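Prompt: For my understanding, could you write out one protein's sequence and C-alpha cells?
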Amino acid sequence: MLAMAGIWAPAEWLLRRLAARASAERMALELVPTRHFDPGLEEIFRRGVQLARASTSMPWWVPRRAKAVQIRLRADGTTPLRYRIEGPAGGQRLLSITPFGPAVTVQRARPIHDTPRTHTVRAEFVLRGTPTAPLREVPLDPDPLQPLIDAVSDLRGELGDLAELRLDLQRAPKWALRVRRAQLMGAARRTEHREAQRAARWLRHDSAGLEDSLTAQLRQLITGRDTGPGRRLVMPPVPRRVDREEALGKLAADDHLVRVQLLVMCASNTQGRAQARLAQLQAALDVFGGRSRWAMRGLRLGPWRLGADHWPTRRGFERRWDQGLCRPPRANWVRLEELVGLLKPPTIHCRLPLLPAELPTFRFGDPALLLQGIYQHPDGRRRLVATHTAETLFECAVGKAGGGKTERALAQAIAYAHADGALMFLDPHRDSWPRAAPFLAHPHLMGRIALIDLNTTGPQPQLSSWNPLALQHGQAPHEVVEAVADAFATVLGWDDATAPRALTILTAALTVLTAINQSACQAGRLEDQATLFQIRPLLTDPDFRAAALAATTGLLDADTRSWWQTVFPHLPADAFAVVLNPLARLAAHPVTRAFLGQPAGVYNSRAAMDNGLIVWICPAGTGPTDRLLIALIARDLLRAVRSRRDTPAHQRRPFRLYFDELITLTGAAPETIAAMFEDFRKYQVSVHGMTQLLARLPAPVRQSLTQNASTLSTTTGSTTAIAPITAEWGDAPSPREVAALDRYEHYTSLTVNGRRIGPVRLTGCHLDDVFTDQARPRQVAALNAAAHTTARAQPLTRLTATAAAQQARVQAFLTHLTTATPIRLTKDDRGYRYQ
C-alpha cells in the first residue's frame, strides 16, 4: 500500500498540473437565440454530436479529466438564462458553426467573475434507478428547459441571487465502456443466479410443506404407502441465460454514448434563498426522470446531508467547478438522445421571465425612462416597467373603448411631464384633461402647461387663438401656403385630377394673403395680418383684391401676378363656391371663427417644442368643421417639425405627441399622420397613437404605424379587431387569449436596447393607484387659470369682436401701403388687367 501510494501521489500531482494547464486554454462561446428559434430533433442531435466530437479536440498529453465540453446554464439577474459552451480551444471552429443556422447567434463570451456571496450551496447529481434505463423522453413543446427557467424565474439580482447548472460531456474510452459492460453483465448474472437459488429454496419449501399437509397424511393412512420427502424428486430451476441487450440496455450499442457530470451551485446574500433555489432546481430535474433519474449525490442523516458542501468532497467539487474538469460518477452514462433538452438554448416554446436588466424598472422623475405598465413576476411581485425614452419612437395602442388605452397614455404623459419632458396631447373628446389635471397641478409644471380648449363651457368661456397664415414667428411663407392648402385638400378630397381649379384658386389666394402678412410683419404691424377669413373678400371683392395685389407687388413672383392678371378675371363666379363653402362653415361657427380669426395667434407648435411646453388641445367635436380644423393643426405640426432642420440634431429638444382617437384624426388627415410616423424620428419627435380598430385606419397610416412602431399593444376586444395586432406577433398570443383579458390588462411588444421584448402581459397604469402621491385636486382651479394664462386665452366675446373687425383692419393696412399708387381694373383686347 505504501508503494502504491508512492506511485499514485506524484502521478496525481502531474495529472492535476497538466489538467490546470489545459483548463487555462479553454474558450467560451455564448449562444443567443432569436425569438422564433424552433429547432427540430435532428438539429439538436447534430449539435450533440458536435459537442461530443469537440471534447476530444485537445493535445495527446491532456488528461482525460480535462477532455470535456461544458454547457453552462446561468441565471444571475441580468438575463433569464445565459447559455454558454466552454471547451477546448481547438474545438472553437467546430462549435462556432451550429446546425441551428441564423436562428442562434454565436459570439465569443467573456470570462465571468463572480463576487463572493454570503451563502453558497453546492450539489452534484448522479443517475439513480435502473442504470441501463434511459432518462424520460421530454418533448420539445413545451421547452424542456422550462422547468429550469421556472426554478430561477423569481431570482433577484439585487439580493445577490445566483444559480448555475453545469453539464460536462465527455467521450469515454472504449476500455471504460467495456469495463462498465462487464460490470453490468456480471451484476445481471449474479442477479439471475440469486433469483434461481431463491426459486429453488421456495420450491423445496413448498414441496416439504405439501408432504406434511393434512391431505398427504390422510392419503398415507388410507393407502398405507409412504410418500416421505425422500421419495419425491425435486428438480431445482436452472438459471436463465442473461440476454445481453436486456442487461446492457442503452449501453449495448457503441454509438453516441457519452459520460456526463452534472454540477449545480446556488448562492445568495440572504439566508435561506440559496437552499430554496437548489430545492427548486432539484425539482426541475425530476422532470427528466423515469426508470432512471437525476438524484443528488451524498448521504442524508436526518436533517443533515453530507454532500458536495462538506468534507471530503467539497474540495474536489470546487476544483472541478473552477477548472472545468470532468470526473463523472460511474453510473453517469447517457445517450445524446436523452440530453436533447439541454443541448440547445431556450426556444420559442419557452416562457422567459422579464428581469429588470431586460425591461427597466420605472423611476419617477427619470427623463430617460418612459412608463409602460405594471409587470407581475412569477413569484407575485409587481413592478412598474419602462422603456428607454430615446428609443421609444412610435407607439400604437389598440383595444375596445374603456379598455385602458387612454389611461395608460395619460400615466405615461404625466410621468414624462414630471420628468421635465415636453409633449402635446390631442384629444377630440376633452375627457383626458379633467382626468389628468389633478396630477399635473404642481407649481413647477403650471408655468409650462397651455390649454387650448375649443369646448366653450360656462357663462364666460375662455379661448386661445391661432392664425394658420401668421408669419410673426419666422415661418417660411411657401411652407405655410403648402400646409394650409394640403389640409383643405385632404379633408375635402381634392387632388390634381378631381379638383385642379379649386387647388389653384386656394393656393393663389393663400400666396397673396401670406405676402400681406409678410408685409405687415416687416412693418411691425402684427395686428394687421390677414386670416383665413380674408380669402372670401380676396376672391369676391374687386377693391380689396386690387389693393392686396398692389400692396404685394414686390413679394409675388411673375407667374403669380400673371395668373391674377390673365386667368382669374376669366373664371366664372361659381368656380369659387368649392373654396368658399368650407370657409363659410368655419366662419359660421362662433368658436372656430374666434379661434382662427385673430391676426397674431398665440398657438405656435414650433415654439412649444423648442421651449418645452405641455400643450393640451381639445377640439369641439368630430364633424366636418372639426375635421378641417384638426387637419389644419396636423398639417401645421408636420410643417413645424420639419422646420427643425434648421437646428443641429443634438440641440433639438425631444417632444412627444399623444393622439387619442386616431380614427378621428386620420379621417381628417391620413397622409399627414402617416408622414408623421415616417419622418418625425429624424427631428426628435415621437408619436403615441390610440385607436379602437386598427383595420379602420387608412392604409398608409396603418402600414407606417405597424412598420415603425417601437411599442405595439392591445387591450381586450373582439377577435376580429385584435387579429391584425396578433398577426404582427405571429398569433402568439392568439386573438382568443387577448380577447379574454380583463380591463386594464394588455399585451404589448416593446423595444429595449435594440431588441424586441414580448409580447408580454402587462397591467395598465391606473392614475389613482400609480400616482396617488402626485394628486393635487385642490390645485386644479389654479392649474386651469395658469394653463389659460400660458395660452393667453381671452373671453369668447372679445375674440369674436376682433375677428369681425379684422377685415377692416387689413383693408386699412392695404390702403396705407397703396395710397401712393392707386390701382384700378381695366379691360383691353387681351382681357381684364390691374393697373
Summary: Residues 174-211 form the longest helix (38 residues). The radius of gyration is 41 Å. Confidence is low (pLDDT under 50) at residues 820-825, 830-835. Residues 397 and 690 are 5 Å apart (CA to CA).
